[in-house]
Amino acid sequence: MRVSISEPLAAGTMAGLVPRTENWRSELEWVRQAGSDGMILFEAVGFGTLQDELRADGFNVIGGSSLGDKLENDRAFALRLLGNHGLCVAPVTEFTSAEDALRDLRGRPRRCVFKLSASHGATFVGTRPDGGDVAALLRSGETDDREPFILMDYVEGVETGVGAYFNGDRFLTPACVDWEYKRFFAGDMGELTGEMGTVATFDGSDALFEATLAPLAPLLREAGHVGYVNLNTIINAQGIWPLEFTCRFGYPGFAVLEPLQKPGWAALFQAMIRREPNSFEVRGGFSVCIVLTTPPFPYSRHDVDAPVGMPVFLGDIDPAQLHLGEVGSDSGGQLVTSGVYGWTAVVTGTGSTVRKAQAAAYKNAREVQTQSLRYRLDIGDKLNSGDFEKLVEWGWLKSTSAKRIASQISR
C-alpha cells in the first residue's frame, strides 16, 4: 500500500503509520506490475472522470465514477432519476438566484430545506411552517447566486440510509441499513456535521434495497461505477422519500460496517475487482460507531486556527473496534492529532441489539483520550425510543430477526 495526500494541511495524517508517495501518478507503473492484484482507491467525491479514465487505461479502480459524482453533486438530477424509478420524491426546485427562490416561497409558503447542490455544500433545515427562516437565510446574502441550490419540501419520518458495494456489474449482497446522527450536540442540536455517529446492520435489508438501490444497477453498470453507493432517505407511513446519495465509502461509513463484515477489506476489494463472488458473509446484529472529534471540528483549519500534535492515548480497546482518522505518529512513536478537520478517530461496538452495541461502543470511547476530545452521548437513542419499531411496523424491516430485535428494544 502507498498513500498519496494532496491537501498540505493533512500532511500529518497517518504520518509514520502508512507508506507515503509524493506523486501518485509516478506509482502507476508499480500498480500495473501487480496485475490483477493492483488497485487504486479514491475516497473523495469529484474525481469521477479521472477514475473513468484510469479504468479505460486498464487499471482496477475502486471509489466512484463520473456518474457517481453527478448523483452526489447534482441533487435535482438524482431526485428526478429516483422519481422515475417510482420512489416518492418531495417537491424540489433548483435555483441559481436567491430572488427567484424568495419569489417561489412567497407564492407557496411551506416548511422546507435549503441545500447547495454540491455534496459538500451547506444545508439548512427550516422549522417555520411558512418558510420564513429559509427566506431570511436567502435575504441575508449568505447564498451565492452563482452556485445552484435547491429548496425541498420538508418530510417528517425516520431518516434511514441504505448502502451496498457495486462491482461494475452488480451490487454485492447483502446491503446495509444505517441511521446517521449529524448534529454536533446530543439531542440533535447545533451545527450539521458530516456525521457524529451511526447505527448500522445488514439484517433485514432486502426490502429497502430492492425498493431503492437495486433498480439503479443498469445505470451504474453502463457508467462503469465500482465502489460503495449509499442513499439517504426519509421513511414514513406513505413510503420512502430519497434525500441524497453518497457514492464513495464515506467517513465514518467504512468504520461502522467493518466489524459486521466477515471478509477483510482486501477480500472485499478483490471481489469487487474480479466481479465474483456476488455476495459476502456478514455478522448479525448491529454496529454502533462514535465519532471522536477535537477542535476545530465542526469547522476546518482553513477557517479556524487550532493546534495539532496533541498526544492521543489508548486504553484497553480491541484494535478491531478502533478506526484512526486524523492521527499520525511523531518521531518518538506517540500517536498525535493531525489533519484538517479534527476527525480524530471512530470507535465501534457490536451487539445483537442496538442497546448492546451502543453500550460496547461507549465503553470503547472511554478508552481513547486526548486534549479537548468531544463526542455525542446519544448515538442510537432515537432507534431505541421507537424509530426502529416504526420501520418494522411499516414493513421495511420484515425479517424474523428484525422483529425479535425490535421486541428486545421495546423491553
**What's the CATH topology name of the largest domain?**
D-amino Acid Aminotransferase, Chain A, domain 1
Helicity level, as a percent range? 25-40%
Largest sheet, spatial ordering of strands: 11-10-7-8-9-12-17-14
Distance between the termini: 47 Å
Task: Give structural notes.
The chain is of the alpha+beta class and 411 residues long. The protein folds into 3 domains: 8-70, no CATH class; 91-153, ATP-grasp fold, A domain (Dna Ligase, domain 1, 2-Layer Sandwich); 158-410, ATP-grasp fold, B domain (D-amino Acid Aminotransferase, Chain A, domain 1, 2-Layer Sandwich), CATH 3.30.470. It contains 13 helices and 18 strands. Helix 2 (48-56) runs antiparallel to helix 3 and helix 12 packs across helix 13.
Keywords:
single chain; 411 residues; alpha+beta; Dna Ligase, domain 1; D-amino Acid Aminotransferase, Chain A, domain 1; 3 domains; four-stranded antiparallel β-sheet; 13 helices; 18 strands; globular
Helix and strand layout, with pairings?
Blueprint: H1 28-33, E1 40-41, H2 48-56, E2 61-62, H3 66-73, H4 75-84, E3 92-95, H5 98-107, E4 112-116, E5 123-125, H6 132-139, E6 149-153, E7 158-167, E8 176-185, E9 189-201, H7 206-211, H8 217-223, E10 226-236, E11 239-246, H9 253-257, H10 265-274, E12 286-293, E13 313-314, E14 322-324, E15 327-329, E16 335-337, E17 343-351, H11 354-365, E18 368-369, H12 381-393, H13 400-410
Parallel strand pairs: 1-2
Antiparallel strand pairs: 3-6, 4-5, 4-6, 7-8, 7-10, 8-9, 9-12, 10-11, 12-17, 13-18, 14-17, 15-16
Helix pairs in contact: 2-3, 12-13
